[in-house]
Design brief:
- With about 230 residues, this protein is an alpha+beta fold.
- The chain has a single domain, classed as Nucleoside Triphosphate Pyrophosphohydrolase, CATH 3.90.79.10.
- It has 4 helices and 13 strands.
- Strand 12 and strand 13 form a beta hairpin.
- The longest helix is centred in the N-terminal third of the chain and has 13 residues.
- The chain is globular and about 40 Å long.
């Protein structure tokens, strides 16, 4: 397994794979457009590459306390890339410019009515990172070496007796049911975060892993989201 050093060679490999990827857009104009950042940065102590993940403030009106990628709603006159970079600045005080944008992955529609465009951004360093306490409760570094090895977890309503460790407390499996009985909820366990992450964030992370790290075209938009992520 490669170390995924945060260097030009890795940047170029990720860029080539993202450029080859035929991303799927969501044409439904009734959805609220949003964008999130898959920020490829470096672990200060090792120089290896990581993705930045946040845990949202418990005081936010939507998706309070949930694990998420930096991002938010696309404002009038903005592109998803504009919104992704603005939100990265507002949430984490990081200001890479458009030359740092590598590309985009598939749009993901959420049960809460958003269409999320994941934007892959190369972050030269995050020494200036300063989490906005009004929006961000914590920031995590997910090593790409760890992400490249994650296993895909799936669950559905048939497992309603099980308990899975959540962010603050145990999450009952009944709250992980997708809104469609034909859908499964995707999850990935991240040791660097110390818990299990669920769709839609898990789906976006998993597609980044498949496309950028493993050079595979893997679709994830068909997975459902757990009920606690609907609000």
């Amino acid at each position: 397994m490669p170390e995924f050093n945060h260097d030009k060679a890795l940047h170029d490999v990720i860029e080539q794979r993202i450029l080859r990827f035929n991303r799927l857009e969501q044409p439904n104009s009734n959805l609220t457009q949003a964008a999130v950042v898959l920020g490829v940065s470096s672990v200060a102590t090792t120089g290896t590459a990581c993705l930045l993940l946040t845990r949202r403030s418990s005081t936010l009106r939507k998706h309070a306390g949930q694990f998420a990628l930096p991002g938010g709603k696309v404002d009038a006159g903005e592109t998803p890339i504009d919104a992704a970079l603005r939100e990265l600045s507002e949430e984490l005080h990081l200001t890479p410019d458009k030359r740092n944008v590598i590309g985009e992955l598939d749009d993901i529609v959420t049960q809460s009515g958003f269409c999320i465009t994941p934007v892959v951004v190369w972050i030269d360093h995050h020494d200036d990172l300063l989490a906005n306490p009004d929006e961000v409760a914590a920031v995590y570094e997910i090593p790409l070496k760890e992400l490249a090895c994650v296993d895909l977890g799936l669950c559905n309503e048939d497992d309603d007796t099980a308990i899975i460790a959540g962010a603050d407390a145990d999450i009952e499996m009944s709250s992980l049911a997708a809104h469609d009985e034909n859908q499964s909820v995707m999850s990935i366990h991240l040791a660097s975060v110390g818990t299990t992450i669920y769709s839609p964030t898990a789906a976006i992370l998993y597609q980044f892993k498949e496309v950028a790290l493993c050079d595979r075209t893997t679709r994830v938009a068909h997975f459902g989201q757990p009920k606690f992520a609907w609000k």
